[in-house]
UniProtKB/TrEMBL annotation:
It comes from Prunus dulcis (Almond). This is Fatty acid desaturase 8. The keyword Cytoplasm does not apply. Keywords: Fatty acid biosynthesis, Fatty acid metabolism, Lipid biosynthesis, Lipid metabolism, Membrane, Oxidoreductase, Transmembrane, Transmembrane helix. The keyword Lipid metabolism applies. Pfam families: DUF3474, FA_desaturase. GO terms for molecular function: oxidoreductase activity, acting on paired donors, with oxidation of a pair of donors resulting in the reduction of molecular oxygen to two molecules of water.
């Protein structure tokens, strides 16, 4: 077993089995936090959609060039907010109605070129296997042998800022190194035979949206659509990649990943990290409140903060209080960059492992930055 006793961990081993059970955490959370109010959930979706159309109208009918950068940042953030609501639909925390969850999820995710069911199923795999070296699905660590077999170009794209911040569309089409399949075809390793109709439905919705965007590009011109839709889309992709990466990386001391008998749903979930995003916490629906969400994805986003506060006394040191943010979470940039350039691979063996650093790539990164 690898150890990672560093600053802040001298008296605490984060890989040790916790002295509580998941039922203890569940019992500490108020019962009303589990209640899904479809009207409240719909109100957030309607709010986000209204803001998106309002921002587009302001930008389109404004003749001032300096409006566009503000529009891109704001609209990309709202695309990200819409994704988070669709994410709740995927978990079933939007409502108790599977039909409503699927309907709203398809509208919201198709609008930002995400295949709802394809992503929903792979994201469910991520939650069911969080913290597992081989079986996790989101930002899963590479083993040392896989890492060393990759061409240098792949290493550069995966571990050099800013390239990882644009990886989500590639992940949807090709997944990550060491894993095969696509989110768009039912024969992918991601899916079981009984999920074929779901995957086809979402892929068809994706194609319809792509065709609609092509039509709008013909009608309004590609430059106008680039400014109105595609630049915000890439801002959304950056939000998604950065936030999801920070959910599982970049704590001040390295956190464990598990294999075999050492892995459990609880221990894997306790390796996730809460983050404070300042003004953006409510805009993107408290997605930074992530530990409780990972353990109990059925809790609606509007109850996550209360549920987390209620569970802290049970979690103890296994809960890592997020660093407080100013209005804009600039403090996360340093954490993000440091983790990407240092957290490269984990050992091929061992049931409890930690990220290790490829010193050669680190030197390459530092030389490139200084040149």
């Amino acid at each position: 077993m690898e150890t990672n006793v560093t600053r802040g961990q001298a008296d605490f081993d984060p890989s040790a089995p916790p002295p509580f059970k998941i039922a203890d955490i569940r019992d500490a959370i108020p019962k009303h936090c589990w209640v899904k109010n479809p009207w409240r959930s719909l109100s957030y979706a309607v709010r986000d959609i209204f803001v998106i159309f309002a921002l587009a109208a302001i930008a389109k009918y404004s003749s001032t060039w300096y409006v566009w950068p503000f529009y891109w940042a704001a609209q990309g953030t709202m695309f990200w907010a819409v994704f988070v609501i669709g994410h709740d639909c995927g978990h079933g925390s939007f409502s108790d109605s599977r039909w409503l969850n699927s309907f709203v999820g398809h509208i919201l995710h198709s609008a930002i070129l995400v295949p709802f069911h394809g992503w929903r199923i792979s994201h469910k795999t991520h939650h069911q296997n969080h913290g597992h070296v081989e079986n996790d699905e989101s930002w899963v660590p590479m083993t040392e042998s896989l890492y060393k077999s990759l061409p240098s170009s792949t290493k550069t794209l995966r571990f050099t800022v800013p390239f990882p911040f644009f990886s989500f569309p590639l992940y949807l089409w090709y997944r990550t190194p060491g894993k095969e399949g696509t989110h768009f075809h039912p024969s992918s390793d991601l899916f079981s035979p009984n999920e074929t109709s779901y995957v086809i439905t979402s892929t068809v919705c994706w194609i319809i949206m792509a065709a609609f965007l092509f039509h709008l590009s013909v009608v309004f011109g590609p430059i106008q659509m680039l400014k109105l839709y595609f630049v915000p889309y890439w801002i959304f992709v950056m939000w998604l990649d950065i936030v999801t990466y920070l959910h599982h990386h970049g704590y001040e001391t390295k956190l464990p990943w598990y294999r075999g008998k050492e892995w459990s749903y609880l221990r894997g979930g306790l390796t996730t990290i809460d983050r404070d995003y300042g003004w953006f916490n409510k805009i993107h629906h408290d997605i930074g409140t992530h530990v409780t969400h990972h353990l109990f994805p059925q809790i609606p986003h509007y109850h996550l903060v209360e549920a987390t506060n209620a569970a802290k006394h049970v979690l103890g040191k296994y809960y890592r209080e997020p660093e407080k943010s100013g209005p804009i979470p600039f403090h996360l940039a340093k954490i993000l960059i440091a983790s990407i350039k240092e957290d490269h691979y984990v050992s091929d063996t061992g049931d409890i492992v930690y990220y290790q650093t490829d010193s050669k790539h680190l030197r390459f990164y530092e030389n490139m930055k200084s040149s």
